[in-house]
Design brief:
Elements lengths: L6 H17 L2 H7 L8 H9 L18 H13 L6 H13 L4 H9 L4 E4 L15 E5 L2 E12 L6 E8 L2 E8 L5 E7 L5 E16 L4 H37 L1 E2 L2 E2 L4 H29 L5 H26 L10 H13 L4 H14 L5
Parallel strand pairs: 1-4
Antiparallel strand pairs: 2-3, 3-7, 4-5, 5-7, 6-7, 8-9
Amino acid sequence: MELILSEEQKLLQDSAARFMEQSAGAELVRRVRGASAPFDAEVWREMAGAGWLAILISDDKGGLGLGPTELALVLEEAGKALLPGPIAAAAAAAKTLSEGDGGSDLIDRVLSGDLIIVPALQETAFGIDPELADCQATPDGDGWRLQGEKVFIPEAGGADGFLVNATGPDGLVLCYVAGDADGANLSLADSVDGGDTGTLRLDGAAAQMISGPNHAGAACRQLLDLTLVGLSAGLLGIMETALDMSVEYIKIRTQFDQPIGAFQALQHRAANDYVDTELTRSFLYQVAAAAGRGEDVSAHASGLKAKASGAALTITKSAIQFHGAIGVSDEHDIGLYLKRAIALSAAYGNEMAHRARFADMLAREPDQI
């Protein structure tokens, strides 16, 4: 698929690129890794002020009235610059809040960057179907109580709250639980890229209903689908920059009195990496366009995440080998791209999990292809 951008989309992409040049990059990654929050709060507020968290929200609800394609353009630039933070997840969560049965009281703070909410949908390593939840939701007066555990929540250390799928008396529900709610306990583990991944234990935690049984299934699917599209855009940006850095390096690194890029083995490898990048780009913007038209893209979103995850890992590992010994040193930026690719490829389900989901959904709904 050839992506032909409108003038508005070009302006958005250029604006995002300028923001990244000024506010993101390897220096920021090195500064925030290991911090209590895996991103810079001031940069997050600047990003929110630019309207990126509002891209998916209709203009009548305070958003920009754009769509997944525009979000992908921004997050592709974010991936190129290694911008830390759960931007894709937070933007998808904002969309869900704006359309839910509840949550209207939260949306303004989310869009201003003062409240960071991310999905917490996963309960096992391969349990990525957002419509299946062992977590239990019990009515409690005007609210709900949640009992269960959510795992592998990317960049959870900087989140203020979570969108949690759970099973209630009448079926699936989607709830908001504040990170500091009584009965909610978040534990963090370090991620390879300097960020973190969280486990959220809920022991009668107070929660607010966002989508009830009549709408929760569609809301959970959309929440995951849009998150996957955004993550895939970030992975595309990572592989683009890693490949560009590699090509520039093999042009100037000499061996046997000639640039190593003159050797056919490296040329073929770089060509394969370029093909992988462009296939991912085509797949990404096809799925984003379909999501923007309101189509059911759940199977394709999983297929896209699987493709982007695998390609990003292949290309960034290849980039390390192109660079040789310097590529494995922390002082060189290329290693940061591999580490970020490892983290994002695992976020909300890795390649194997999404291949399995893609195959399962097509077996049940073959008309999706």
